[in-house]
Amino acid sequence: MSKRRNSNGTATVELPFVLWFFFFLVVFPMLDMATAGIRITILYAAAHTAAISASRAHTFLAPLEEKKSAIQLAQQRTVDVVSSFTGVKVSKIETSIIITNLETLTESKTNAPLTKTADVSKNTYQIEVIIEGTTAPLIAVPLPVRIDGVTHPLSVKMSDRQYCENPQGLTI
After folding, report:
1. In total, how many domains does the chain have?
2. What does the pLDDT read at residue 164?
3. Which end of the chain is more exposed for a tag (fewer CB within 10 A), N or C?
């Protein structure tokens, strides 16, 4: 008489290995990538909010009559948005003026106030905010290879532009 083997014992022994493979190589990395996508969206929201606020400022560099400048508003709004969430860090905030010639459609960029009065009949003026930062993974998966967003923080650069509502204040 031959003995029949029960396959339940084999499945019980293999289950931990299958679960480890499934969770560490499939579920956790996908969860980390989804978290990275959400955190990148938070950085974009910070850049968008900062650009909107900066475009409404009365001056570009120096505060005037207790009203904040575009650069100050961009920094403040970025910090306001990012501080509400975990896993998102900002390393650099850059606020610039983008001048577009209406005839040639050429763009020029400056990080300083305009040297001459804005001429809205020849140019359009936009405020651009560029934010550099990192988004941390939700669960750092211990893999032997480096994968940004899964095993290490993901470095991103987000930007947004808005038309300036007060181009005459760009000289201050």
Report:
1. 1
2. 96
3. N
pLDDT of residue 28: 80
Mean pLDDT of 150-166: 94
Helix (H) or strand (E) holding 41: helix 28-55
Domain that holds residue 129: 9-171
Average pLDDT, the chain: 90
Asked if 107 and 114 count as a contact pair (C-beta separation under 8 A), the reply is no
Sign of the torsion formed by the C-alpha atoms of 60, 63, 65 and 66: positive
1 within some domain: no
**Encoded tokens for 142:** 């211990």
d(CA 12, CA 14): 6
Q: Is 4 part of any domain?
A: no
| In contact, 54 and 163? CB cutoff 8 Å | no
Residue 2 counted as domain residue: no
Cβ-Cβ contacts under 8 Å for 73 (sequence gap 6 or more): 50, 53, 54, 56, 57
In this structure, is residue 166 part of a structural domain? Answer: yes
Q: Is this structure's pTM higher than 0.90?
A: no
